[in-house]
Amino acid sequence: MINSSSYAMPDNRIELIQGDITKLAVDAIVNAANQSLLGGGGVDGAIHRAAGPGLLEECRSIGGCPTGEARITRGYNLPAKFVIHTVGPVYHGGKYGEAEKLASCYRSSLKLAVDNGLKTIAFPNISTGVYGYPKEEASQLAIAVVKQFLAGDETIEKVVFCCFDHENYSLYHRLLSTC
Ligand code: ADP
Predict the structure, then answer these.
(1) Beta-bridge partners for 168
(2) Distance between CA atoms of 120 and 18, rounded to whole angstroms?
(3) β-strands 14-18, 6-8: how paired?
(4) Active-site residue set
(5) For 22-69, what is each residue's pLDDT tens digit?
(6) Cα–Cα distance, 168 to 60 (Å, whole number)
(7) What is the side-by-side strand order in the sheet with 82-87?
(8) 37, 31 in Cβ contact below 8 A?
(9) Is the CB of 30 under 6 A from ligand 1?
(10) Best substitution site from 26, 43, 44 to test ligand 1's pocket, by max atoms within 8 Å of Cβ?
(11) Which residue's alpha carbon is at the smallest distance from atom 1 of ligand 1?
């Protein structure tokens, strides 16, 4: 793994790393996509570049995805077997259902993983890039939703929070160390 530190959290099913999600050999990496599913900047662009043109072709056949929902494709040239594309909310101040939509992204992605028999899944920090969701609030929400999901599920073996920037990594490290 490139430029990353990794350690197991107390319950052993949540892992935190700092690094590039496209390098992770998990069953599925989650893409912070846009509604078109046709690629974009940030982590979306990095995933499409690393996966190759087959990913775009399969995404085209899906025909888009509403905010808060998720869709699954194969991983093509990625080390991950599948990509789960979810569309995070654009942050407009917090009074437009952003938190519920962001929670739905994490829940829908995990449910799709379970429905497809997947055991290991890695998330980027959805919506905290160009979509402008405040990083601290997003990290609290992501951890709470994942913990709640895992409490009711025995099939997922590992959820990786893959932070690209140090600010997000520090936030997750602090929250995961204290709860
Ligand atoms: P959004 O539109 O949902 O905000 P972005 O891609 O702009 O999506 O940002 C989401 C998060 O993904 C940001 O925290 C950004 O630092 C992170 N990110 C960007 N590239 C990568 C990558 N290769 N691996 C993991 N995370 C990444």
Answers:
(1) none
(2) 17
(3) antiparallel
(4) 44
(5) 999 999 999 999 999 999 999 999 999 999 999 999 999 999 999 999
(6) 31
(7) 6-8, 14-18, 158-163, 120-123, 28-33, 82-87, 70-74
(8) no
(9) no
(10) 43
(11) 127
Give the CATH number of domain 3-177: 3.40.220.10
The DSSP 8-state label assigned to residue 22 in this structure reads G
Report which protein residue has its CA nearest ligand 1's atom 21.
43
Cα–Cα distance for residue pair 127/139, rounded to 1 Å: 11
Atom of ligand 1 nearest to the CA of 47: 23
**108-155 pLDDT per residue, tens:** 999 999 999 999 999 999 999 999 999 999 999 999 999 999 999 999
Task: Report d(CA 127, CA 107) in Å as an integer.
Answer: 15
Is there a contact between 151 and 6 (Cβ–Cβ < 8 Å)?
A: no
For the Cβ of 86 lying below 6 angstroms from any atom of ligand 1, the answer is no
The pLDDT of residue 121 = 98
Alpha carbon separation from 14 to 69, 92, 141, 150 (Å, rounded): 22, 30, 15, 9
| Pocket lining: 163 vs ligand 1, CB cutoff 6 Å | no
Q: What is the average pLDDT score of the chain?
A: 94
DSSP string, 146-158: HHHHHHT-SS--E
